[in-house]
Amino acid sequence: MIRPINFGRRYVRLRPLNLRIDVKSLIVTAIIVFLTIAVALFALMAGTMQLSVQEVFSALFGQATGMTHTVVVEWRLPRILSAIIFGAGLAISGAIFQSITRNPLGSPDIIGFTSGSYTGALVAMLVAGSTTYIGVAAGALTGGFTTAIIIYLFAFRKGTQGFRLIIVGIAISAMLGSLNSMLLLKSDAEVALTAAAWGVGSLNGISFEQAILPMIVVILLLIAAWIMNRTMREMQLGEDAAKSHGVRMEKDQVLLIVIAVALTAAPTAVMGPISFVALVAPQIAIRLTKSTESLFPTAAMGAFLLLGADVTAQRIVTGNIFPVGVVTLSVGGVYLIWLLFHQARTTR
Question: Where are the transmembrane segments (predicted)?
């Protein structure tokens, strides 16, 4: 029997599922999950109406009534679960694009898919005149997938190379940014203000009625991405190596892009475009685990980052109206500058 080469990493094997899990990745994931739960508990307790741990758990288990139940279950819990699930989805979307492009800049907000979703939502609000949740969500989903098709067609030439995909995506994103500005300037001030506020990205006022279907979609897409995890790892080795290992490059790339775009479009349809979570989370997870084998640390990191950013925006910065997108944009912008500087130094 040929045993796999051990490069100094420890693994545990789940025999019923025939899974091999890296011990370090498992420990890092467990720590991130614990921190996420701690932040979620703090978010349930903190706010204008301060609650104790006992009151929070009473509300969660259906033993509380009145205002306590309303605040915990109807107001705070949808926001927290949305941040966790959508943050995980955005992070995995970034991991997929970074695997396809083999570049840490491969991210839906850098390549332009987030801008496409925003453009679709603006067309729905400002051109079609639809301000309902379903109309805006449909516009965001349509815009995201349309942008993905355009970028893929322009980037395709005897295969899809990662660098070409990034360059084309950045160009399309710049064009969409100009189109978005034009749509806002030509619209009525009141409607344009609402659309611009949505475009910052926010979890304010989110409810289970709005978020439940996108959350289910994201969970199903996360399962699909986990099934494709081996293919993603093979793609990071390069096209020739991946093909030699049985990867159908074009078909698998298209399938992964569809999954990644949907993982971006579904959250964007609910909370607006959230920048840099997809860019930052996979890279932090890789640096913590020193491994690209598992998506679990990446998903956990995305959930922690978006929830932490939302708690920071709501509880520390201004109280109740500050959009989470401003926090992620500020922190992510600093990270992007560092990443570009680091890339420039390593290529000298």
Answer: 21-46, 80-98, 110-128, 134-156, 163-185, 205-227, 254-282, 320-341
Judge whether 276 and 266 are in contact, CB under 8 Å: no
Reported as a single tens digit per residue, the pLDDT across 278-296 is 989 998 998 888 876 678 9
Question: Dihedral (C-alpha) 157, 163, 168, 174: value to the nearest 10 degrees?
Answer: 180
CB 319 within 8 A of CB 101: no
User: Is 5 among the domain residues?
Assistant: no
2, containing H or E segment: none
In a domain, 24, yes or no: yes
* Whether the Cβ atoms of residue 144 and residue 268 lie closer than 8 Å to each other: yes
Look up residue 318 and give its DSSP letter.
Answer: S
CA distance 47 to 311: 10
What pLDDT digit, counting tens, does each position of 96-106 carry?
Answer: 988 888 888 78
CATH number at residue 107: 1.10.3470.10
DSSP string, 17-40: TTEEEEHHHHHHHHHHHHHHHHHH
Residue 98 sits at the vertex; the CA angle it makes with 113 and 177, to the nearest 5 degrees, is: 25
Residue 3 clears pLDDT 60, i.e. is over it: no
pTM of the model as a whole: 0.87
Distances 165 to 49, 228, 269, 273, 342 between C-alpha atoms, Å = 48, 20, 24, 20, 21
Q: With helix as H, strand as E and coil as C, how does 231-294 read? A: HHHHHCCCHHHHHHCCCCHHHHHHHHHHHHHHHHHHHHHHHCCCCCHHHHHHHHHHHHHCCCCC
- The whole domain housing 89 covers 18-346
Number of domains in the chain: 1
- Confirm if 152 and 160 have CB atoms less than 8 A apart: yes
Q: How far apart are CA 27 and CA 260, in angstroms?
A: 26
* Domain contains 282: yes
Count of all residues that appear for the chain in the document: 348
Note whether residue 48 is domain-resident.
yes
